[in-house]
Inverse folding.
């Protein structure tokens, strides 16, 4: 029996060479104060295992104390910096705010509906119909919808008449939209026809003619091509913005007449009334 097999022979103290960080008594590699091994994250030095000295791992230090890994966890506490548990399992004391929310009493349907409405109104003004549509999609009962929206009507949080006036002013002056296009947009947003008509009173025929001419003048600065092609494109542009055929044709004719001699000659041959009647099918 060799000396190494003699049970009476005292064993050598200290770790055996060739074992990766484990002592002769089978205990785990030395850990830091947090309880996590310095190689728990699987990282090592750039060269991996050293040739003769066994394996070595790179310790990372955050600030002045514990090691930290790439996932943002701190070895001082054993929890990620964002408050979760190691490995994403959640805090042992509950999942942050989720634990607190479980202790809160459930909110009433009215409270939920009011919160939804206020979030919508924070983005832009809304009509009553728009808010009702959102609440229906969120499965709020009809009774609660009526209750919440009636209250908002009373205190002026929602006001379809004010919404319509602001919408018309913004879209007419900002986008150059005519009455027909504006009326269609208000209808899509659930504004009552009578309320919409009152808001559209500020956009009369004279205002439409001025806005149409301003749009044409702006487009003519960069327009290229023969006068007849430019004429067709500009009339079509005004039609898409809701202008009647007569106003659109006159605006383009007058703008072309002031552009250059060639365009003026083409404009002189245009009969706005005849073209407008043809466009409307009269």
């Amino acid at each position: 029996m060799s000396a190494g097999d003699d049970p009476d022979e005292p064993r050598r103290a200290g770790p055996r060479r060739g074992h990766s960080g484990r002592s002769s008594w089978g205990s785990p590699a030395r850990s830091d104060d947090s309880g996590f091994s310095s190689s728990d994250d699987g990282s090592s030095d750039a060269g991996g295992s050293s040739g003769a000295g066994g394996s070595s791992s790179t310790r990372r230090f955050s600030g002045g104390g514990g090691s930290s890994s790439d996932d943002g966890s701190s070895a001082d506490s054993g929890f990620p910096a964002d408050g979760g548990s190691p490995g994403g399992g959640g805090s042992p004391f509950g999942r942050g705010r989720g634990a607190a929310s479980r202790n809160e009493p459930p909110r009433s349907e009215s409270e939920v509906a009011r919160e939804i409405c206020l979030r919508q109104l924070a983005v832009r003004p809304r009509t009553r119909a728009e808010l009702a549509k959102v609440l229906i999609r969120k499965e709020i009962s009809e009774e609660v919808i009526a209750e919440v929206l009636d209250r908002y009507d009373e205190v002026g949080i929602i006001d379809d008449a004010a919404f319509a006036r602001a919408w018309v002013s913004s879209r007419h002056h900002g986008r150059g939209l005519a009455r027909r296009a504006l009326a269609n947009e208000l209808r899509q947003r659930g504004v009552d026809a009578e309320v919409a008509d009152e808001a559209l009173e500020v956009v009369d025929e004279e205002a439409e003619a001025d806005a149409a001419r301003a749009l044409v003048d702006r487009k003519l600065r960069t327009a290229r091509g023969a006068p007849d092609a430019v004429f067709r494109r500009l009339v079509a542009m005004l039609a898409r913005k809701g202008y009647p055929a007569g106003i659109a044709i006159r605006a383009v004719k007058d703008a072309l007449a002031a552009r250059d001699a060639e365009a003026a000659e083409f404009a002189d041959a245009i009969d706005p009334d005849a073209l407008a009647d043809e466009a409307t099918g009269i």
Remarks:
- Residues 161-203 form one domain.
